[in-house]
């Protein structure tokens, strides 16, 4: 009798576990808690549940390693048809994919659902720098590429490195391997090196420089968006100064390749609903993100073009062959 | 008396029963996390982040909890260093050198009390330093570019050989093995994978916690099996637990000196607690000279690194709060938490959010006293660990470390690496090669290479860039870099020449 009860109990437990796991969506943050990807998963996951887009709270899993490569290969190789899985992504994801930094994995092995916010790229000099605007800085590099060294928070070939190179390419400068760059431990460290006089300019994200802007240690030469950023209206864009470059660190999601078009579109709708919610607007303001919404097939084709241009630029600077 | 006003504000925030409870809880969790090998302060804090989010803590409460864990882990790391010869976390590495010999001599309780008091002195002085000097010291970071950091790391490396008192060549060999291991992973300046064999798990390099658990915990197991349990400190009869006032008094200058040096190492964003405890140990060893008998289990050898690493933990908060630049792995995690809580550390934090800064400082002062009163009486409990039969204790500790390592990345690959390092550790110890320099080689090697390569990029490949570190001022020599480089060269060569005149080289024996 006891045996029977136990068996029945275990069956019901197994059933209920199976049932909940089929319903609850999972968001993989490919980094440790506290970073940008973790933020994406926790915020989007929370809002998805709060506004009733999913029935159960989204479970956040931190799967750190190889700069997101470990999570990418897990999704591709082990969970390629999991309809309940979303993965946090950003510019770093596509940059690394374009540079073959995920051990042979390519961007077309997953589907990019959308981006719903972005941290605008900036180019910054110390307050006592002789360069007053972006044109002066770019002209100085074109005249003598050794005269300016950049510091940024990503490794060589990373997104922060590519930003000034994109501007220089737009200015018609071709000898981009001569441009000096050191990758340090985050944007604040890059500013420290620049204010200390070891490098002449800093390349990074808007959220990284706000504190130093308020304290008067730095001057922002340009923001790399289409229009001036709300709240920072006195900072000119690179486009205004004659360089057709938009470089933002977007925050978004990808899903496994093997799911159906209906499931893909369902995730796209859910993400759009998050983007439209008041909760997300508040989260963006709190975290220094600018509006940047691209969802569904529209986003996938934008990603394809970004990957292609990143690949070309990376080949020119020799990060990939 | 602006500082007193600010401090009053801080205590008014931190002295609420709720915050106090969080501080006590954090100290307790931190001590445990620090004591468990394989779980260091940075993953201890990282594990708690989701919990602070789900508890819905406000910024000050979350910071109090997480920094209490941070300080607690710095205290706790010494416990397993002393009792088991297994560093609980990387800054506690140096404490094994004299702490474990003390335990083997039956003085485990004394070592724990002395190191507890040293931790308290170091952390207290560092918190006071943070309070008085933080905005001022933040300017120090502007004086250190890649060239200066490289010189600092070179100085540390030049003195590595001195760790082993018997045979410097073996210590040098061990640090080279560490350097070799540090080369695995992505090349810092091109991002290309190096010595990884195409394995994604190796792209991030080898975590030093993996190496620590392997070289210390797993190799200890191998020795235990080989000797049928006779080589361990476990089972050693312990003297009655009492406070060794005389030893504490005799180490007072050591604690003070180490606190200052440790704090300074912490303030430099590129250095951190591990370098802090290493440099304080080497400094005290050279001050004491041969008569100091460092390495055989002397109180000063326990007090120096513990005061040093706790002071560095406080020092590392200076660049994190005033610049937003993390000085260590743990402050990097804390920084991420702050950003998530919508607080952007930086030059304006002290004026924009005095409640956060002074609440934190007050909480740190409270946490410090809590930790002292928690750690000293609990020594009685800690030493009981040694009465657990070794056949249960060592496998148990190893199992816990394995769980800790698995929690780092959630991959079994690191567990295989741990076993591999265990075999390496066993072989090295059989050959009488110290394992501490291997870890330091891994820890410092990464940074030293990165800084050298960056300095070379800035100077366009010219070696003069190591002295003329500011490209915008080509005529101005860097006094910091030059001074450190001269010290490094002297530190490496001087003992070789001077030894001839002072004492004859000792016969190698162990």
From TrEMBL, chain A:
UniProt key word Signal: yes
InterPro entries on file: BUG (IPR005064), Bug_dom1 (IPR042100)
Pfam families per the UniProt record, alphabetical: TctC
Record field: transmembrane: none
The entry's keywords: Receptor, Signal
Extent of the signal sequence: 1-24
CDD domains noted in UniProt: PBP2_Bug_TTT
PANTHER family in the record: TRICARBOXYLATE-BINDING PROTEIN (PTHR42928), UPF0065 PROTEIN YFLP (PTHR42928:SF3)
UniProt name for this protein: Tripartite tricarboxylate transporter family receptor
UniProt organism field: Octadecabacter ascidiaceicola
Higher taxonomy: Bacteria, Pseudomonadati, Pseudomonadota, Alphaproteobacteria, Rhodobacterales
From TrEMBL, chain B:
Name used for this protein in its record: Tripartite tricarboxylate transporter TctA family protein
Transmembrane domains' residue ranges: 7-33, 45-71, 111-134, 140-162, 169-186, 206-225, 260-283, 323-344, 356-374, 386-405, 412-428, 477-498
Organism: Octadecabacter ascidiaceicola
Domain of life from the UniProt record: Bacteria
Keywords associated with the record: Membrane, Transmembrane, Transmembrane helix
UniProt KW Hydrolase keyword: no
InterPro entries noted in UniProt: DUF112_TM
Alphabetized Pfam families for the sequence: TctA (PF01970)
Keyword Membrane: yes
All residue ranges annotated as the DUF112 domain in the record: 20-440
């Amino acid at each position: 009798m006891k045996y029977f009860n136990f068996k029945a109990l275990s069956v019901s437990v197994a059933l209920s576990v199976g049932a909940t796991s089929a319903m609850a969506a999972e968001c993989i943050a490919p980094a440790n808690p506290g970073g940008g990807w973790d933020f994406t998963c926790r915020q989007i996951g929370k809002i998805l549940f709060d506004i009733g887009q999913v029935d159960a709270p989204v479970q956040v899993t931190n799967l750190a390693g190889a700069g997101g490569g470990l999570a990418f290969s897990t999704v591709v190789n082990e969970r390629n048809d999991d309809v309940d899985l979303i993965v946090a992504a950003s510019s770093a994801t596509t940059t690394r994919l374009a540079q073959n930094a995920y051990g042979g994995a390519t961007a077309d092995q997953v589907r990019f659902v959308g981006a719903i916010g972005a941290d605008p790229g900036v180019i910054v000099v110390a307050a006592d720098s002789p360069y007053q605007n972006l044109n002066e800085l770019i002209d100085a590099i074109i005249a003598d590429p050794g005269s300016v060294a950049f510091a940024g928070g990503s490794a060589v070939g990373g997104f922060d490195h590519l930003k000034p190179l994109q501007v220089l390419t737009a200015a018609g400068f071709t000898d981009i391997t001569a441009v000096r760059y050191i990758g340090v431990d985050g944007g604040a460290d890059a500013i420290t090196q620049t204010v200390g006089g070891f490098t002449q300019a800093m390349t990074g994200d808007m959220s990284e420089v706000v504190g130093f802007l308020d304290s008067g240690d730095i001057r922002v030469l340009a923001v790399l968006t289409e229009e001036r950023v709300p709240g920072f209206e006195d900072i000119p864009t690179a486009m205004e100064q004659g360089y057709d470059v938009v470089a933002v660190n977007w925050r978004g999601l990808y899903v496994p390749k093997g799911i159906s078009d209906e499931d893909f579109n369902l995730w796209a709708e859910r993400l759009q609903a998050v983007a439209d919610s008041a909760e997300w607007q508040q989260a963006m303001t709190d975290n220094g993100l600018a509006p940047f919404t691209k969802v569904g097939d529209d986003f996938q084709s934008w990603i394809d073009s970004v990957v292609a241009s990143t690949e070309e630029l990376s080949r020119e600077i020799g990060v990939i062959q | 008396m602006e500082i007193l006003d600010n401090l009053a504000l801080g205590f008014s925030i931190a002295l609420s029963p709720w915050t106090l409870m969080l501080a006590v809880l954090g100290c307790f969790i931190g001590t445990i996390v620090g004591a468990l090998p394989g779980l260091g302060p940075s993953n201890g804090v990282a594990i708690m982040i989701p919990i602070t989010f789900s508890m819905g803590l406000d910024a000050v409460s979350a910071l109090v909890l997480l920094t209490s864990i941070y300080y607690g882990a710095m205290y706790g790391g010494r416990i397993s260093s002393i009792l088991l010869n297994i560093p609980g976390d990387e800054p506690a590495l140096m404490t094994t050198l004299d702490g474990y010999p003390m335990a083997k001599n039956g003085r485990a309780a004394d070592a724990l009390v002395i190191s507890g008091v040293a931790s308290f002195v170091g952390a207290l002085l560092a918190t006071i330093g943070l309070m008085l000097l933080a905005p001022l010291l933040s300017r120090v970071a502007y004086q250190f570019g890649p060239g200066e950091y490289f010189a600092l790391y070179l100085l540390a490396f030049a003195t590595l050989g001195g760790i082993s008192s018997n045979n410097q060549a073996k210590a040098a060999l061990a640090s080279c093995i560490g350097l070799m291991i540090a080369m695995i992973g992505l090349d810092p300046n091109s991002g290309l994978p190096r010595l990884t064999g195409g394995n994604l798990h190796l792209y991030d390099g080898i975590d030093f916690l993996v190496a620590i658990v392997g070289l210390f915990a797993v190799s200890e197991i191998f020795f235990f099996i080989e000797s049928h349990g006779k080589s361990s400190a476990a089972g050693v009869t312990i003297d009655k637990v009492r406070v060794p006032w005389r030893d504490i008094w005799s180490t007072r200058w050591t604690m003070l000196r180490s606190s200052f040096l440790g704090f300074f190492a912490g303030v430099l964003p590129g250095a951190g607690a591990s370098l802090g405890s290493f440099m304080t140990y080497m400094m005290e060893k050279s001050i004491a000279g041969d008569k100091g008998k460092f390495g055989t289990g002397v109180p000063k050898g326990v007090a120096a690194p513990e005061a040093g690493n706790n002071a560095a933990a406080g020092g590392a908060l200076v660049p994190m709060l005033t610049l937003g630049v993390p000085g260590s792995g743990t402050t990097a995690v804390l920084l991420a938490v702050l950003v998530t809580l919508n607080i952007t550390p930086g030059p304006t934090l002290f004026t924009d959010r005095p409640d956060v800064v002074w609440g934190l400082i007050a909480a740190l002062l409270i946490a410090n006293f809590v930790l002292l009163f928690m750690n000293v009486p609990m020594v009685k409990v800690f030493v009981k660990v040694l009465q657990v039969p070794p056949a249960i204790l060592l496998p148990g500790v190893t199992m816990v470390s394995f769980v800790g390592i698995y929690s780092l990345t959630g991959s079994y690959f690191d567990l295989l690496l741990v076993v591999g390092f265990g075999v390496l550790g066993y072989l090295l110890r059989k050959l009488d090669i110290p394992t501490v320099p291997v870890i330091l080689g891994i820890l410092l090697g990464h940074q030293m290479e990165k800084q050298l390569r960056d300095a070379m990029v800035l100077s366009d490949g010219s070696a003069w860039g190591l002295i003329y570190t500011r490209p915008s001022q080509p005529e101005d020599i860097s006094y910091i870099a030059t001074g450190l480089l001269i010290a490094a060269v002297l530190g490496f060569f001087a003992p070789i020449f001077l030894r001839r005149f002072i004492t004859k080289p000792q016969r190698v024996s162990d």
